[in-house]
Q: What sequence folds into this?
């Protein structure tokens, strides 16, 4: 298990603290990720639809991908991969200070829904910093990095699909730049 000096997602889950109505088993299954415990993309789509109906609404969608996650799974196995996903979710919740804005899209891709676009740059800096702390499990120490893409509503799209697409494409460009800008030891530059 990872050393956990960051509060776990379960510990700050308002549902587990009785601060919100209990979800039905079906809601819980479709809105909570089985591995990480954070919300799923289905819940994010619902939140996006709600935010887009608010007058004068502005917000940002951030798409994050753990660099070289496939290699971690292939080298260390799915159990370590799942631990990396759980710890990644815990770190995302800790940095955003809001479990309600963290969503797992699939595999090693997460999305954030940020109400204050002006804070996005500092948030991305903090995300990169927090992910530089090595992940440790079963004697393995793994240094991870993130590829990040951002889309702002309404500037980059007026539908949930367009916003998520723009953020995803920006994240893919960021990842591609890292792959093509390797340093002398073969590792991507951050």
A:
């Amino acid at each position: 298990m990872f050393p956990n000096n960051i509060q776990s997602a379960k510990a700050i889950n308002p549902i587990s603290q009785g601060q919100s109505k209990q979800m039905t088993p079906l809601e819980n299954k479709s809105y909570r990720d089985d591995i990480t415990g954070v919300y799923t993309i289905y819940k994010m789509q619902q939140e996006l639809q709600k935010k887009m109906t608010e007058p004068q609404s502005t917000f940002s969608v951030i798409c994050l991908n753990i660099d070289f996650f496939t290699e971690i799974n292939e080298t260390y196995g799915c159990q370590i991969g799942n631990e990396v996903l759980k710890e990644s979710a815990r770190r995302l919740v800790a940095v955003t200070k809001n479990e309600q804005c963290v969503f797992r899209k699939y595999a090693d891709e997460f999305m954030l829904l940020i109400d204050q676009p002006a804070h996005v740059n500092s948030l991305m800096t903090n995300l990169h910093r927090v992910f530089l702390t090595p992940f440790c499990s079963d004697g393995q120490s793994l240094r991870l990095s993130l590829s990040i893409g951002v889309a702002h509503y309404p500037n980059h799209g007026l539908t949930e699909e367009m916003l998520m697409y723009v953020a995803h494409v920006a994240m893919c460009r960021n990842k591609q730049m890292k792959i093509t800008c390797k340093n002398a030891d073969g590792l991507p530059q951050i």
Summary: DSSP finds six helices and seven strands in the chain. The helical segments are 25-31, 41-52, 69-76, 78-96, 120-132, 160-180. The chain has a mean pLDDT of 83.
